[in-house]
Design a protein that fits this description.
It is an enzyme of class 2 (transferase). By secondary structure, this protein is mainly alpha-helical. The protein has 15 helices and no strands. Helix 9 runs antiparallel to helix 14, helix 12 packs antiparallel against helix 13 and helix 13 runs antiparallel to helix 14.
Amino acid sequence: MKHWIEAARLRTLPLSVSGIIVGSIYALSNPTETVNTPTEVFSWKVFGFALLTTLGLQVLSNFANDYGDGIKGTDNADRVGPKRAIQSGVITPQAMKKAIITTSVLTLLSAIILIYFAFGQSNFAYSIFFLLLGVAAIASAIRYTVGNSAYGYKGFGDVFVFIFFGLVSTLGVNFLHTKEIDPLLILPAVSIGLLSVGVLNLNNMRDEESDRNSGKNTIVVQIGGAKAKIYHFSLIITSMLLVIIFAALSDYRFDQYLFLLAYIPLTKHLITVYKNQNPKLLDPELKKLALSTFLLSALLTICMISLISDIIVNLFLGGR
């Protein structure tokens, strides 16, 4: 069990639920034009199964990454950071393959239940669309490093992370609650997507040498470490600016800018990356950036709801 927990890479899980939290609480704090009260929009069942589905997708991605890099030999003695399960031999490729299949089935089942709670027996077209989206997310999580045409080896991993852990996670769960798309929510959705890409880019900066030797052609391998730093700064800084723009367009009061506290660890992270001369020493920054992203999302959701009394009334007395 210890080895399976390590293979699931728990430190990545807070990052994966950031979009779910923001998208759901935005639905709670911003009733649609057709509904008058937040509790008519927000559903605990949708929120819970959205979290479960996203966590399943993240664990699946981690298992598939371990399997794909393990059997390809990308995870070798040159790799920096915690040893992977297949690399160290504590889990066999056959066992990991079974775990990938099992996790895929459970994640798909969770997605189906989520879709049912969101749309019921109506909105058949929406149900089919989100079902296909769920299948695409599962397939993409596996194909990142698994197979001869794994897109993670061609530098497209950043695109997958941005789309599914940024746009789909935030906008998708909000739509499951509201059945509408709020253009303003695109700003925090893009922000979370960029921060998620930042975590992946940091991972690829750390592994640049071993990835190049193994033929894993990530964006960092393609552009080099120096430009990867510039790319990293642009991801994080753009993300921070987008959230401020979102707050300004939402007419936030002064006290609703509490989320700026999360900019402290993000700024410290940028300074660390700027000063770094040995990419192999960036491993601790992965966890810090992931947790900083979660902190930003958590503080932003608090800022979305004006009064503590509103939270109590809407969530505990009127929520379903």
